[in-house]
Amino acid sequence: EIQIASILKSSELFPIPQGVKLSYGTAGFRGDAKLLESTVYRVGILSALRSLKLGSATVGLMITASHNKVSDNGIKVSDPSGFMLSQEWEPFADQIANASSPEELVSLIRKFMEKEEIAIGENNKGAEVWLGRDTRPSGESLLRAGEIGVGSILGSVAIDIGILTTPQLHWMVRAKNKGLKATENDYFENLSTSFRCLIDLIPSSGNDKLEISKLLVDGANGVGGQKIEKLRGSLSNLDVEIRNTGRDGGVLNEGVGADFVQKEKVLPVGFGFKDVGMRCASLDGDADRLVYFYIPSDSSEKVELLDGDKILSLFALFIKEQLNALEDDEERKQSRLGVVQTAYANGASTDYLKHLGLDVVFAKTGVKHLHEKAAEFDIGIYFEANGHGTILFSESFLSWLVSKQKDLTAKGQGGSEEHKAVSRLMAVSNLINQAVGDALSGVLLVEVILQHLGWSIEKWNELYKDLPSRQIKVEVPDRTAVVTTSEETEALRPMGIQDAINSEIKKYSRGRAFIRPSGTEDVVRVYAEASTQEDADSLANSVAQLVK
Ligand code: 16G
Ligand code: ZN
């Protein structure tokens, strides 16, 4: 009853805004920052309960609205594993966020605790929640609301771990619960050490092929650029210039950042003709997305985009090369590596990956869906075209690598190609964030692979040529009227619409199109691709007409 009194009292501080329906959505709650205090406070309560449910393991709360505008904010929960909050808890998140009074809130919490058998008492250790935020000005007061939410559950500890990228928070939570060193400095040290290790393993012939040219980074005026600045000093073999750090008056995500560059296919602010031919990378507002681009010498300020699919293809190529060097059961070797894409993946990338002999599977849009499927492989690489992705290594495969390395060393084959391949795979598993897609570790892995192969960005871009594509959003009275298959490639409802889409597709060479309801906005999205831009545009338009 003390507990209830404490929630009743603190929730008075955070009245729920009128007339908004809040939903945890694809990646947490998002919206106008002014309307979010009550939500963040309530998610604070949820995170403390989540920690208690899992034996007081540390849970993470990240306050960010990623690539959305600076006046927006949002909140999402990191499970103790460092992954997204278990989807089983999302309905509870929705319920408490929308509870209309303190009494209703308390009653929902009570019921849920009973169902989940969560007890608060002297016999239990309290909950522990780590709270991080991006650079949004609204972040600080929202973080306080989250702390009060956590604190309203008896015996809980809320720890403010400051301004971070989203992937840093997930990484730190994961490390903490594994009993590893888990500060921001440990994160940086882990990146620079594994990067160094991969650099040292570059075959010497690869090394001389490419003079290490400067990388230009668009920091989206957010947290990512600032963190690369901190990391830069400890990286050898990488010359980085960071633009759009947010300190020169630029606004977060405005005309900058990975989402802008990928969707609009135009240069971010601060980049221009002077940068022709330079290798450029763009991060999003919370640095969990990464795309590359360059300005070809034959054009004026046109962008050649290397999106998540291209990054995935580069990673897949490199990993496959390492797997090929292993003495391993041949069949086993083939099945170790799998890649996961969404319906948005450019058809040319899927063809390329299949051509490499890889197992390509499709997942629904949203990181949690891709992650789940990638975790089924020994090495699972997942990427969304928008630049969010990572490489997951299974625990059993990592132990296999460790024993393999020991064996080879014992046999005096420490310098063999096989030993090097094993070491590279282990270094990649340390470098690349095992919790979520991470633009910082992504940049480092791209850079070291390019050096390893002796490739320029143009050469990398030539892996395959993207099919022209077009995306349109259509405003509809009720987007839930559109229901798709689990991979979102076909619409099951409204009845008959898929047949109509199919007959449009048939009119175009290499035509492909699909519709899906957005998980973050009140719209239906249309995607189309075809062998020419005109055809892709026209296919997208006719499909959009069917949706209206
Ligand atoms: C969120 C997702 C992103 C997805 C996008 C789709 C996470 C961390 N982020 O930003 O992966 O591509 O939503 O948005 O899961 P949409 O449903 O509006 O098209
Ligand atoms: Zn993001």
Automatic annotation (TrEMBL):
Enzyme class: isomerase
Cofactor note: Binds 1 Mg(2+) ion per subunit.
Membrane-crossing residue ranges in chain numbering: none
The keyword Nucleotide-binding belongs to this UniProt entry's keyword annotation: no
InterPro entries, per the entry: A-D-PHexomutase_a/b/a-I, A-D-PHexomutase_a/b/a-I/II/III, A-D-PHexomutase_C, A-D-PHexomutase_C_sf, AMG1_II, AMG1_III, PAGM
Keywords attached to this entry: Isomerase, Magnesium, Metal-binding, Phosphoprotein
A Pfam family matched in the record: PGM_PMM_I
Binding site for substrate: E384, A385, N386, R516, P517, S518, G519, T520, R525
Cofactor(s) this protein cannot do without: Mg(2+)
Any one GO BP annotation for this protein: carbohydrate metabolic process
Residue ranges constituting the Alpha-D-phosphohexomutase alpha/beta/alpha domain according to the UniProt record: 53-90
Binding site for Mg(2+): S66, D284, D286, D288
Gene3D superfamilies on file: Alpha-D-Glucose-1,6-Bisphosphate, subunit A, domain 3, Alpha-D-phosphohexomutase, C-terminal domain
SUPFAM superfamilies, per database record: Phosphoglucomutase, C-terminal domain, Phosphoglucomutase, first 3 domains
Pathways per UniProt: Nucleotide-sugar biosynthesis; UDP-N-acetyl-alpha-D-glucosamine biosynthesis; N-acetyl-alpha-D-glucosamine 1-phosphate from alpha-D-glucosamine 6-phosphate (route I): step 2/2
Residues covered by the Phosphoacetylglucosamine mutase AMG1 domain: 182-291, 307-455
Record family assignment: Belongs to the phosphohexose mutase family.
Job of this protein: Interconverts GlcNAc-6-P and GlcNAc-1-P.
Protein name: Phosphoacetylglucosamine mutase
